[in-house]
Structure formats: C-alpha cells, structure tokens
Amino acid sequence: AQKVTQAQTEISVVEKEDVTLDCVYETRDTTYYLFWYKQPPSGELVFLIRRNSFDEQNEISGRYSWNFQKSTSSFNFTITASQVVDSAVYFCALSPGGGNKLTFGTGTQLKVEL
Amino acid sequence: DVKVTQSSRYLVKRTGEKVFLECVQDMDHENMFWYRQDPGLGLRLIYFSYDVKMKEKGDIPEGYSVSREKKERFSLILESASTNQTSMYLCASHSRGIFPLHFGNGTRLTVT
User: Fold this and answer.
1) Are strands A103-104 and B19-25 parallel, antiparallel or unpaired?
2) Which of A30, A85, A88, B18 has a CA-to-CA distance to A79 between 20 and 30 Å?
3) Which of A21, A51, A100 to mutate against chain B (most B CBs within 10 Å)?
4) A29-85 pLDDT per residue, tens
5) Which of B30, B37, B48 to mutate to test the interface with A (most CBs of A within 10 A)?
6) Interchain CB distance below 8 Å, B106 and A105
7) Which has the closest alpha carbon to B45: B54, B32, B29, B28?
8) What pLDDT does A99 receive?
9) Contacts of residue A6 in chain B, CB cutoff 8 Å?
10) Using CB atoms within 10 A of its CB, is residue B54 exposed (0-12), middle (13-18) or buried (19+)?
11) Do A53 and A68 contact (CB within 8 A), yes or no?
12) DSSP label of A86
C-alpha cells in the first residue's frame, strides 16, 4: 500500500523567510514517482515537480528546491525568500512506477504574510 | 496547454437527487480521474478510467458511479446524493504513462 504523510497541517511565515514543507512516503515498489502540487486559492492544482525513484539529485528551480532522500523516504520542498504569492496548499503525491494512480498527502497550508 | 474543464464551479443539490459532474479534456488523454478533496483528508481517488467505456474503482467509490462514452469526457454520477458527499470534486487527466496529472478547477458540491 502507498502512503504519503505531510505532518505539517499549516505553516505561517513572514515574507522573505525560507520555509520547508515536509513529505514522507511509504511504498513497497522499487520504482515510483514523487510529485509536488500547489493549490492556490483559485482551486486548480498546479504541477511543480516530478521525481523518479532512481534520481536522487536535488533540484532547484528559482526560489524552489527539492530534497529527495530515499534513505529516509522523504521528499521535502523548500521555498527560499517566500513571497505572499506562495500562499497556497501544497500537496505531495506518490505513484507506483508504471501505474496510473496518485496517492496524495493531506496537504500543507502555507500562509506568507507581509 | 492542456485544458481540463469541469462544467460547474459551484453546485447545490438536495438529498436524494441524482447529480452529474462533467469533465472534459482537450488533449486526447487516455486516463481520466475523479478525486474528492476534504479538509484534513487531502485528495482521495473515487474512480478512474484508462480508456473509453473502461473504469476502475479508486479508494472511495461507494455512492458514486462514472461514465466514459467519449475519450474527452468523464462524468461522475451521484445516484442519490447525501450530505456526506458535500465536498470539492476534482477531475484530472494525463496521457498513458506520461505524467503529470492535469487538473480542472474543481466543483464545490453542497448537498442539503
């Protein structure tokens, strides 16, 4: 069975602070994919990143970075110098390799205030 | 850009009514999904379809059915709506074997 845990229900930061969103997953598959999605107040989930289980390189995209560690089954997401526009619910998700179904975590509500 | 369109943004229905939620995608994707989103529970998969007229149960199919008569359209049906089906419903699609999932804007359904 697949499981994704996002233990942080809500995080509040002040603009320009760095913030890390935690994601821990469980799977028995050796091949799998991990994802992060952003859900702004408008409601539509926006894809941020996909990582496969064989690629443990960290990734940086502008102010966003992702740290994938198979040893701890974690795929954490860091926003550097947060901005008000980063306020959203962020979901981590897992899919077995070759499978179609995504299992989502419960989401982390990020509030960035001035 | 992939576009996944859900026919209604907000919907209010009465207990016992038959409810149809419609979803259309414009990218010829084989796979389509219906999720439900509730506070503290994240997104949970109701049903998915990997081809026309094909469907498979997700994690919480009870009380729901689906229809996929055309490749671009995937309908979620609540045969007899109940108050515990009040939720945000999200449709998604992707091409077989190719992620990511593309989501619609969601339909917020209230059953009174």
Assistant:
1) unpaired
2) A30
3) A100
4) 889 999 999 999 888 899 999 888 988 888 888 999 999 999 999 999 999 999 999
5) B37
6) no
7) B32
8) 65
9) 42
10) exposed
11) no
12) G
